[in-house]
Amino acid sequence: MADYNEYTLPGWTKKVRPASKAIFMMELDRRGVTYELNGPRVEFVSRRGKRAWFAYSTTSLNKRSANQICQNKMRTKEYLRNAGTHTPPGMTFSRQDQQKALHFAQTLGYPVVVKPVDGVAGRHVFSDINSEDSFAAAWGQQPEEQTILVEKHVEGDDYRAYALDGRIVAIARRDPPSVLADGHSTIAELIAALNKQRRASGNPIHTQVKIEGVVSDYLKRQGLSSDRVCEEGMRLLLRPNANISTGGAVCDVTDDAPEPVVEAASKAATAVPGLRVVGLDILYTEGKPAHVLEMNHNPMLSIHHFPWVGQPRDVARDLVEAMLAH
User: Fold this and answer.
1) Has residue 253 got a pLDDT over 90?
2) Is the pTM of this model over 0.85?
3) What is the DSSP string of 187-210?
4) N or C: which end of the chain has fewer CB within 10 A?
């Protein structure tokens, strides 16, 4: 399987990175649309003669002011609350204000989440923090010169909704990487089998799971190690988060997503003026409100085109059509 940032898509001979750019260019090729590559940008002219572009999953459809709001997680929370959606309470701190942040976390009540205010791809995100020691460890791994967000930890399944002009085009559930114990294989052997399955599948976005760093630490938190043999039928989680870039798996649920998830996504999709394209990160547990964690002005196309389970959704088709009509 190719590295997460390198793709040769099925039925397409060009090798382009990253995946969303490749998918976007493939749709333009399918339509016979002439385009130019200008650095990271894919540029073309709409049917109305306007210059359109796509870069790093950001598009010319969104206003710059809308993108800037999405890049600040605290401002995003304000817009989400005004739209009537649930979002975890939180506050931002400078890198030097660790003690103030710790006091806020204790006032908020454990567990909490610590993450960069404008972070991407799940980097430096630490969730389910339950003690002063784990808070200090998470704080110490935050980037220098970065504003840090401390917010209440919310449990639930992880959903990503892709919205275009206020319409929900696709919804995916992102599951943390896991393996199912068979009663005779070690966890290391189960992970090796999972990686072999992913390589053989031809799915270009589902990555290998490495037994190091977060995976090793998370197994230890569960009282497990890579050489452990577990009872048959036991589901073993390998990471606390479901980011696809670190081994999570995508399950398409567009047609059967829980109603609270659909409702929260629909409200959030129109929360920020000028934000025509947005990816919404939502956590939901049955019987509780769905919480919108973040609004992404540059949502990946690839997770909807290449789910591990379920039906692929051609979000690139709808996106390109909207850009050509603009």
Assistant:
1) yes
2) yes
3) HHHHHHHHHHHHHHH--SSPPPPP
4) C
